[in-house]
Amino acid sequence: MYSETRLLRRALIAAGWILLLTVWLLDVFAGRAPHYRWTSWLPIVSGPLACAVLLWPGRRPSMQVRAALVAGGSLALTVAIGVFAAPDGAGTWGLLESVVLLVLLSRAVRAVPRPGITAVVSVALAVAVIAIPLRWAPTNSQAAIGWSLLMTLAVGAAFAWGLRARLLEEQRARDIAAVRQRERLELAHDLHDFVTHHVTGIIVQANAALTLRHIAPEQVGPLLENIARSGSESLDSMRRLVRVLREDDHGSIRPGQVWSELARLVSEFSANEADVQLRMAVAAREARLAPEVETSVHRVVQEALTNVRRHASGAAVAVRVDVDGHRLRVEVHNTAPAGSRSVLGPGVGTRA
């Protein structure tokens, strides 16, 4: 399944490059005539420049900056052609430039975080796309107006596509927040049950000590020691659970960072002189996981390591992540704790 996904992604990327190259070749060979002047060659340059801004690697400059640069450059070129090239404006409409503007419009609607900036950038890109056919106005005004109306429909389609993707991303973020909220409530419930259990035991032992102080005073000392030990264990457990709750509040997993988060969990667990190994298969690293799946994987490993620290201190732990057909397999195995004998034997762990 994951190999098919990678092949499909590569095929889509290759198809995109072929489409862009085909559109640019149309700009090169369409509309060439001897009486065209320098304006005839503008699409050959403006299209690749806009495409370079769109496909520039890295996150810098940001999407709003790229959109502003391309929209401003296209509008400036349209005005310059109208002022200096009229009435010889034929051959100045670049298809590749129009395609890049539409793609940037869709991506800006989807990716620009602030609504105000999104609106400004979207309007600038829409105006630039609709104004490109007007470069033909000096020679063929009817065709220019007709193509501008057609580009208006293309702008609407690009905007709708980007808005749909933005709404899906926001819904996914809300779903992840809801999952994390449910997990926090479950942890809080576990904390309540744990504290109730230990405090009840402390109260019972304290009442027993009060009863035995006159009948068997020699047994009061061990009871007080048990009370002190139970109180210390309760405080340690509460600190661990509260730390997990705080991590959920401030250290949420970002999409694509689950493997680095697992490495961090294992590193923190190893800091307490525990023998732990993390093995992640290459197929698992290359798999594209949904955000809710990444959250589940992180939670499974975190819960398993917490249980090992609580119930099998000193045990050797192995965390394995691999792909099993169409499923992602997460396994956490631990040996018997140091100084004790396990009824089930080593290798008993958690699977997901």
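(the above was protein one; protein two follows)
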Amino acid sequence: MGTGKRGLIATALAVVCAVTVLAAPGTAFANPTPSPTPSAGPALAAGKDLEAVRQKLDKLYRAAGRATDEYNAAEEKADKQSAEVVELAKKIVKGQEKLRKLKDRAGAAAAAQYRGGGLPPEAHLVLSDDPQDFLDGAGRVREGHHATKGLLGELTRTQEDLEQYAKDASAQWKKLEAGRKAKAAAQKKIEKQIAQAEKLESALQKEEQERLAELEKEAANKAQTAWLDSGILDEIDGAASEQGKKAVQYATAQIGKPYQWGAEGPKTYDCSGLTSQAWISAGRGIPRTSQEQWKRLRHIAVQDMRPGDLIIYFGDASHVAMYIGDGAMVHAPRPGRTVTIAGAGSMPILGVVRPDPDTGAN
């Protein structure tokens, strides 16, 4: 990362330091030091009680994160299924119009035969006295046979196509309805978990809420320090690709915008909404959810990651952030928080994925 980008990160960090999990101002942000613990007054709950609250909140918000992934996946499927239903409907309309025209042609052919006295073309041919008329008529009879056979075959195929389109549309409607139910169930899960977390937090006194925030930062700082103490940052020196730079630029430009589950911007984001939109802005579409990003994008060793790569967190791949260099990442943390810069190792890393090819890095 160049000095310009380092300056950008440092500036952004200074702005959001109150809500990030990095070190307090004055320390190198790549290697945060836990904030000192203020002594608890009589109004505060015991330290271990607040730590239990912090762990409970972490579980609730992580459960909400998993449900958000379920919601986003159901929404993505519903969008695809809706598009497929629309395409099938278009095919049915076109097929019906084609069938109508074919039936009109068949009707016209029947009417022509009726105007000929009800005699088939072969009879008219036999009654002809002129040899040339006979030869011309024989050719027309053959052509007529082929045309009639082709018309009947096309009518049959069109009717079969329409029947298949109708079956496919019916199947897609069933899938769409199942997807809507899955989406509604996931939404209930999200709202339940968030409501429980908010209730738990609102029961705390102001001083306890402030101390809880300190505990959250301390836990993140501890994890980040342990990650950096492993020496991993000495091995991470990959340069961003051109697309990666654009993705980082987009993601960091969203700093300060609120987290909202299911959101893809431009005013609010959830974790995978931020990363997917950042890469779309860079000209590369990627899966919508953190779990699908983990499943379908190319895996990269942590020591090989470069700015723009996505860091997947927790064993269930329920959270994702974008690496921006110097041991930092940008992400949409959880409800009640905003898009912010944090230490890349401040949460348990499952792995790293790369949306773009290796070519183009500089």
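Reviewer note on protein two: The chain has a mean pLDDT of 77.
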